[in-house]
Design brief:
2 copies of one chain form a homodimer.
Chain A (H helix, E strand, L loop, with lengths): L3 E8 L10 H16 L6 E5 L3 H5 L4 H8 L6 E6 L4 H15 L5 E7 L9 H5 L15 H16 L7 H11 L13 H6 L2 E3 L2 E2 L9 E9 H7 L4 E10 L14 H14 L8 E3 L5 H10 L8 H6 L16 H5 L3 H17 L12 E8 L4 E9 L1
Parallel strand pairs in A: 2-3, 2-4, 9-10
Antiparallel strand pairs in A: 1-7, 4-7, 5-6, 8-11, 10-11
């Protein structure tokens, strides 16, 4: 199994891109990553996307993006794992290069969620849940997470306001990220008074959707060794699932798939949570940030909010999370999110994160969640 | 890169399964493949599917199927490449095992196309084409193929009836396949008089949709060497794309991606077309059978129909195709088709193809096409 490294990264701003279609967004990120890598071609293209069929009436996305991005002929495929589609595409590209089947893999996560032809976005997002046993009951995706958060507050005695630091940190970091969806910092007062979406989740607990694409070119590490570029290797990659329906889980407050995938990735990289300098977690809702910190070993069970309250989650804290804004403020173009997270970890390890640079970051982890904890992937990157 | 072999195969009959949902179909094929392999678990699950989002309002299919099939926790993902989704999932599973990232990969192709909640199936299938430049003009998928077939008849001087042998052979073979959608043999008279769908494509040029699932368990070859089971290795695997829109191709009668992927797979396996004992091609429409035979080196350009007219495509012919019924009569549950084809090649190489057994078959190829030639994969299997 060959070691794999990141040769180039690229991304588009996340916004309501009314003037850009799915393929145009993907192409923009592909061009940026190839330019960053100093390459013009790739052996394979892996497109992470969740909703193109429903929202843009477009499948066969691999061929579509390859064609548009000037890579016609290149092997290409779409990978889907709901909101974890981006990381799933990254893992597919990684395995393709590590297997020796190809010497370069371009991974692009893309989602077009505004000005689309399909059904309501809320209905489309519910396809991440169990269609027969959850969505069929009228449960939207935010409603599912609201049930989880309500149970968490009940079980561990936290107040809603205790989750404010997650949101405040994400917004504060996004101010400095030109690609972020939101650029306004917020206060605890704002958080407490935000409009309710699905009790207890309010607007500042929930990540905004958007249109965007992020890309990453992977190559065998020995190539980077030869050309002397900044060396960022993928030291760990793992994926796991849990029951797709939340009600089928023994404990709905435990992300079993986050635990399993992170544990495996730690073992591959030979690290423990204490070694992770930056952690781009999947804060689609603030409750997910807490559960993720617990399942990945950064906090005791039921103690996730404490890290925020103690001021440990900022770029200079003990566990820096959402350093470029996270899903909460960078934005959550669902199938693209996992690649944005990976790109942001690479920015940190290259020392290119500007005002939210984590000092001396050498090891970073990205964690991407599909469904309410159903499919979870962890990737650990290391600066060489 | 480790050599990979097929340890188990399984499939469901293709039909209008009004009593079986997407997950039930997938589960049935998974159970069958695991049973055939004598296993109860897999390290990874790769689900090939095109239309679950649109037709069943269900994404996150990896987690869904893993959960239902008793594989909860297992790494799982969905792979999409329109009607080539099955082979794309197979290739993803293959790379996962050959990379060493996992020691077993269960590939399942599944599609649920009848009694669904989504839009008309015809509209859903059009997502395989270019949504902005083809489907937006009102072109259905069969209409696109009709344009190609009309051009072919014009360019090379064939009559519509010259394509009859493709359909007759497929139907004759499907009679003996208990998993096939159609079990009625047909005559040239039937073919010539079939109801028109999109001129010149009539009902007997077009493959029937259906609900179904097929699965295959992949393991490193050394494991098979140890346990003494029938040895079927994957000797070649390749994928290529062409422009997604037919009008963007230099020559709409040349499947460039079929040529490129087959050429690569031949090189990997060290074989030429003459060495292929059985060829499960993608006869979604009879014109595609002709174009595929030409692009893969079995016929000269413009001469695809000749093989049929000369009686060379039956199980005892020089180029046996659609030996279990092909898409035309076995049926075309789109995202599952590529895995059905692979399963059928393995049946042939194991000598388990009954009345349509190709005598002494040692090397077989499966070719799966997504869109009107946009994404094409070739897999070559070899009996050890």
């Amino acid at each position: 199994m060959r070691e794999v490294a990141v040769l180039g990264i690229g991304q588009t701003p996340i916004a309501e891109h009314w003037d850009k279609s799915l393929r145009m967004l993907a192409g923009e990120a592909v061009f940026a990553a190839l330019k960053d890598a100093g390459r013009e071609r790739t052996d394979g293209l892996f497109v992470g996307n969740m909703l193109s069929g429903l929202l843009s009436r477009q499948e066969n996305l691999g061929a579509l993006v390859a064609d548009w991005a000037g890579l016609r002929g290149t092997e290409a495929v779409k990978v889907e794992a709901a909101c974890a589609s981006g990381a799933a595409a990254l893992r597919a590209g990684l395995m393709a290069v590590s297997s020796g089947a190809m010497d370069s893999a371009l991974v692009v996560g893309v989602e077009k969620m505004t000005e689309t032809v399909g059904p309501q976005t809320t209905a489309a997002l519910a396809t991440a849940a169990d269609a027969d046993w959850e969505a069929a009951q009228g449960l939207s995706f935010v409603a599912l997470n609201a049930l989880i958060m309500r149970r968490y507050l009940h079980e561990y005695g936290w107040q809603h306001t205790d989750f404010a630091p997650f949101s405040i940190n994400a917004h504060a970091n996004a101010v400095h990220n030109p690609y972020a969806r939101l650029h306004d910092s917020i206060t605890t007062h704002d958080y407490n008074r935000a409009r309710m979406v699905a009790d207890p989740i309010n607007l500042l607990d929930a990540s905004p959707i958007g249109d965007g694409a992020a890309a990453m070119l992977l190559v065998p590490t020995e190539i980077l060794k030869r050309n002397g570029r900044p060396m960022i290797t993928i030291a760990g990659s793992a994926s796991a699932t849990a029951s797709i329906a939340v009600h089928d889980r023994r404990d709905p407050l435990w992300l079993a798939a986050a635990y399993a995938s992170a544990k495996k990735a730690y073992a591959q990289a030979g690290v423990s949570p204490a070694d992770i300098d930056v952690f781009e977690l999947h804060d689609a809702f603030s409750i997910m940030a807490a559960l993720s910190l617990e399942a990945c070993g950064f906090a005791e069970r039921g103690q996730g909010p404490r890290l925020g309250l103690e001021g440990q989650i900022g770029p200079s804290g003990r566990v820096p999370i959402a350093t470029r804004g996270g899903l909460k403020a960078r934005g959550h173009p669902v199938g693209a999110t996992g690649v944005y997270q990976a790109v942001e970890v690479v920015q940190q390890l290259r020392g290119e994160a500007g005002a939210t640079q984590v000092p001396g970051a050498k090891i970073g982890m990205a964690q991407n969640i599909g469904g309410s904890g159903a499919t979870i992937l962890a990737h650990i990157f290391r600066a060489g």
